[in-house]
């Protein structure tokens, strides 16, 4: 939908910078229009673990409340309840953000000086009250096998549909040490739609407060708006910048969204494909930075995460600029796996049977159609299937499983490290290809993601 069309539908809600918003869009959240649900209160909420500088000795956390000052408290986890007797306390100042849910203070802070491979408990303060104690384990300093979870776009009706996927993933892979996200966490795009963010945190729940989250920005995290002169501009959603941690190790012009993080012998590189697709210079800036980060990489495995696919899977899409600026570097420096989203289908592809494996996945209810070209060339594709990925990383093998929301294995393979540093891909399993179940295809899409909202009755069965 164009900005012009959206303007006709929606009303402006914030002064200065004219940001347009459809307040609590009934079809895209479980909150009916005019109902109150996710306003900030004197109790801390939206608590989330985020990467810090060194995973073995530090841990970042983000949270939100209605008050301007907060505290973060942590202690080595013990078997009894007397955690606070030996706890460290940090005073933290909030950042005020105005949304369609009113004012809220967002916090981010880091616990530093931690011991490696050690269980810690932490909590954050509201007004005269603390959150529950939550736990996390710091990383080891050396390579050690571990598992993680990956999620493609969540984006629409998050409470109704994304929560089921997160819970299924958590039940099946409770040992996951990290959770990775492809971007388009929310639909947003034209307004500060805080109910959507409330639903994202609701869906992630306590798991997100006990497992570090590595989050790439998608195009829907960028809000389109107009300044006083009527010029269109884009900026990252306030909730994204105010709460998610920047590691400040990316290119200067993209510090909020581009970074790398090393965890137990794996380098995770988070890129901003929206910036690259929309601005050639920012594709190049990221390529220059990538070269440094890849050429100086002591880790055993390297995984890149960003939003737009290098090789599109769904109909009518292509991002040649990513191939122009990034693909050669991924080949040259032997990136093992590239995790992407945006296309709302599943697709797994290794060009010419060598080099990085490119995977596109979808976590939420918006479902598109696989293009003929992708169907012909990709090793596995899928439509109309909510998926998460389980990665099991050991010294010489990287196992990848794509699992559906019902726990059904959809695709699995292993990358086996060879003596020359290359990987041999061994296929373990491929399910029969899932096709769109909708009887009527609208606008070349299977589902728009808004048909099965918890705030309205379902469409008639087709
Ligand atoms: Fe997207």
How would you describe this structure to a colleague?
The protein is of the alpha+beta class. The chain has eight helices and 28 strands. It has a seven-stranded mixed beta sheet with strand order 13-12-11-24-25-26-27, with helices on one face. Strands 16-17-18-19-21-20-23 form a seven-stranded mixed beta sheet. The chain has a four-stranded antiparallel beta sheet with strand order 3-4-8-7. Strand 1 (about 10-15) and strand 2 form a beta hairpin. Helix 6 (about 280-295) runs parallel beside helix 7 (about 320-330). The radius of gyration is 21 Å and the shape is globular. Fe (ii) ion binds near residues 153, 218 and 342. The site of fe (ii) ion (FE2) has 7 residues, from loops.
Strand content: 25-35%
Number of helices: 8
Name the average pLDDT. Answer: 92
Derived from helix and strand composition plus strand pairing, the structural class reads: alpha+beta
Shape: globular
Radius of gyration: 21 Å
Bound molecules: fe (ii) ion
Distance linking N and C termini: 25 Å
Q: What is the helix content?
A: 10-25%
Low-confidence stretches: 5-26
Question: Main beta sheet, described?
Answer: 7 strands, mixed
Count of individual beta strands = 28
Strand order of the largest sheet: 13-12-11-24-25-26-27
């Amino acid at each position: 939908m164009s900005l012009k069309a959206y303007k006709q539908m929606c009303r402006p809600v914030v002064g200065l910078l004219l940001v347009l918003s459809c307040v609590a869009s009934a079809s895209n959240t479980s909150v009916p229009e005019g109902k109150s649900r996710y306003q900030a209160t004197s109790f801390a909420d939206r608590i989330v673990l985020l990467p810090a500088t060194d995973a073995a000795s530090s841990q970042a956390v983000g949270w939100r409340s209605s008050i301007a000052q907060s505290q973060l408290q942590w202690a080595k986890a013990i078997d009894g309840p007397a955690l606070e007797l030996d706890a460290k306390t940090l005073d933290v100042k909030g950042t005020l953000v105005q949304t369609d849910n009113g004012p809220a203070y967002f916090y981010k802070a880091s616990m530093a000086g931690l011991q490696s491979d050690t269980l810690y408990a932490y909590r954050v303060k509201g007004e005269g009250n603390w959150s529950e104690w939550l736990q996390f384990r710091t990383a080891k300093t050396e390579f050690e096998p571990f598992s993680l979870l990956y999620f493609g776009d969540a984006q629409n009706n998050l409470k109704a549909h994304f929560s089921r996927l997160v819970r299924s993933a958590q039940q099946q892979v409770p040992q996951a040490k990290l959770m990775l996200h492809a971007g388009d966490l929310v639909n947003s795009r034209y307004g500060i739609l805080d109910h959507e963010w409330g639903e994202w945190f609701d869906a992630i729940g306590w798991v997100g407060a006990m497992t570090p989250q590595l989050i790439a920005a998608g195009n829907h995290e960028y809000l389109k708006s107009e300044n006083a002169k009527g010029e269109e501009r884009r900026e990252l959603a306030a909730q994204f910048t105010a709460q998610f941690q920047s590691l400040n190790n990316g290119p200067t012009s993209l510090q909020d969204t581009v970074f790398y993080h090393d965890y137990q012998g794996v380098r995770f590189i988070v890129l901003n494909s929206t910036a690259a697709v929309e601005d050639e210079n920012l594709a190049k800036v990221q390529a220059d930075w990538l070269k440094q980060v890849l050429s100086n990489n002591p880790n055993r495995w390297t995984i890149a995460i960003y939003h737009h696919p290098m090789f599109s899977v769904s109909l009518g899409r292509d991002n040649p600029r990513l191939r122009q600026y990034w693909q050669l570097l991924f080949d040259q420096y032997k990136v093992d796996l590239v995790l992407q989203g945006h296309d709302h289908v599943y697709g797994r592809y290794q060009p010419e049977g060598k080099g990085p494996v490119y995977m596109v996945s979808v976590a939420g209810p918006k479902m598109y159609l696989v293009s003929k070209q992708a169907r012909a060339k990709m090793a596995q594709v899928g439509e109309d299937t909510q998926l998460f990925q389980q990665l099991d990383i050991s010294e010489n093998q990287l196992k990848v499983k794509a699992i559906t929301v019902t726990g059904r294995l959809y695709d699995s393979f292993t990358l086996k490290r060879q003596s020359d540093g290359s990987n041999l891909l061994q296929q373990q399993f491929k399910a029969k290809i899932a096709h769109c179940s909708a009887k009527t295809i609208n606008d070349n899409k299977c589902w728009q993601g808004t048909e099965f909202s918890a705030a309205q009755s379902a469409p008639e069965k087709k």
